[in-house]
Specification:
Layout (H helix, E strand, L loop, with lengths): L21 H8 L6 E2 L6 E6 L3 H18 L4 E4 L3 E6 L9 H15 L4
Antiparallel strand pairs: 1-2, 2-4, 3-4
Helix pairs in contact: 2-3
């Protein structure tokens, strides 16, 4: 059995590998159950709600830090108190393990108590 997603790290993807199948994506989604799989199985997204603009922007900065550390960057849409994060692997026009690894890292980061 492989390590949990939250204990894995992204590997560079330059293309040349197949995207995850719908079955593979659904299996990985079991470890990130708050994320939604797109209808065509090429992306995952999650909507996050906050109390206000500052909390939203703080969250986006945290996501940016995780993405930069992993070398895998999401699409981000946000407003005053809401943010949608979408992951896909552009180099393969679909999903890779990297998308689920980053989703799991974000989920774990928001569960950790602030210091």
């Amino acid at each position: 059995m492989s390590k949990p997603l939250s204990e894995q790290r992204c590997v560079p993807c330059e293309g040349g590998i197949p995207a995850l199948t719908a079955t593979e994506a659904k299996t990985l989604l079991e470890q990130t159950p708050q994320w939604q799989l797109s209808d065509n199985h090429d992306a995952i997204h999650r909507v996050f709600d906050f109390k206000g603009f500052y909390a939203t922007m703080s969250f986006i900065n945290m996501v940016a830090w995780i993405a930069q550390q992993q070398g895998h960057h999401p699409d981000v849409q946000f407003g005053y108190n809401q943010c949608t994060i979408t992951f896909t692997t552009h180099a393969i026009n679909g999903l890779s393990d990297n998308d689920f690894i980053c989703a799991s890292l974000i989920d774990n980061a928001i569960l950790e108590p602030s210091h």
